Amino acid sequence: MSNVLIIGAGGVGRVVVHKCAQNSSTFQKITLASRTLSKCKLYQQEVKNRYNIDIDIHKVNADDVDDLVSLINEVKPDIVLNIALPYQDLTIMEACLKTGVHYLDTANYEHPDSAKFEYKEQWAYHNRYKEKGIMALLGSGFDPGVTNVFCAYAQKHYFDEIHTIDILDCNGGDHGYPFATNFNPEINLREVSANGRYWENGKWIETKPMEIKMVWDYPQIGPKDSYLLYHEEMESLVKHIKGLKRIRFFMTFSQSYLTHMKCLENVGMLGIKEIEHNGCKIIPIQFLQTLLPDPSTLGERTKGKTNIGIVATGTKDGEEKTIYIYNICDHQETYKETLSQAVSYTTGVPAMIGAKMIVEKKWQACGVYNMEQFDPDPFMEALNKQGLPWFVEQL
Ligand code: NDP
Question: How much is the pTM?
Fold first, then answer.
């Protein structure tokens, strides 16, 4: 019974559009807006062909609050889903505040000029959203997103107190290219090449990129080298999971990926500052993105599975216990369903479910919130129904 405006027609945007169309009893009117109208047109046609649903499309500059406000006033959505880039979080949040519309995103704000992300500027909107009577749901992808909900679910059903959490993200898929990223290359490479960080006994501990490695045996994939990275959901989880003593995030990378990335970094191709080239100003990492495969085109050629989950340790009724909650997703299956690889799928499905929680009033609050602050049960139930079933194992 709602009207949804999706901003961003990239790899993840495609999945969000397909999943909203599959849930047309919840999302009766769908509008997709992005910088490049031809991508919106492509997804509009896919949705017409697959589900016989008409969606509206618009061109928008999501860096411009006035442009966003006029689009929102024209579309009159109940909720805006920010599926563009983290650079646009604050302008879209501002436009939602001005127009009194709920907001959701999948990645926290990052300034283009510094490869650092934190929730501070988005959390600063809390009182203004509360006074306006609207909600912002931050980080409704897989990680952040489902991993936060897994933690809340573990806390609610398995523990009196959680002491440690390891978030474990494995992409066991292969797209056949020597080097490509599974989501926006610029955002991905900024994240992966940065220093690592984890939280222990109330303090953040910084590590060099890829300094800490462990091998984890991922169900249905097998043992994989997993490297410690900083990841944004840790910032909110340390606030909201009471009694936590340590939280870390690990992601798998192949040796080939790491060698390519190191080489590109060594020659300056990951630079985020403008340089002069033949009389033109370019930003090296953006030029590299132009050369790399567009993640939204990887779907057809990617084979294998992803496995993302959390391992939590703690106590229940005085006993120590360890719980592993995870999802396995198959690249070829997600391609069949939404013409997208599993990294876009595992991000886009939770974005749609987060929106569903808000418009169906299963998650209701005014202000700015992270995923673990709500009852995990309806979200976990929706994951099972919407293509991301999960498993719980006691280790
Ligand atoms: P893409 O680069 O494929 O898509 C981004 C889209 O946003 C593109 O269509 C782009 O337009 C559009 N866009 C960019 N800037 C603007 C602007 N100023 N105005 C309007 N539209 C704009 O990225 P992905 O789909 O791979 O990723 C989308 C988001 O999902 C990112 O924020 C990423 O960090 C997040 N993500 C979250 C994950 C999670 O688990 N939480 C995991 C993976 C990704 P154009 O087509 O013109 O380039």
Answer: 0.96
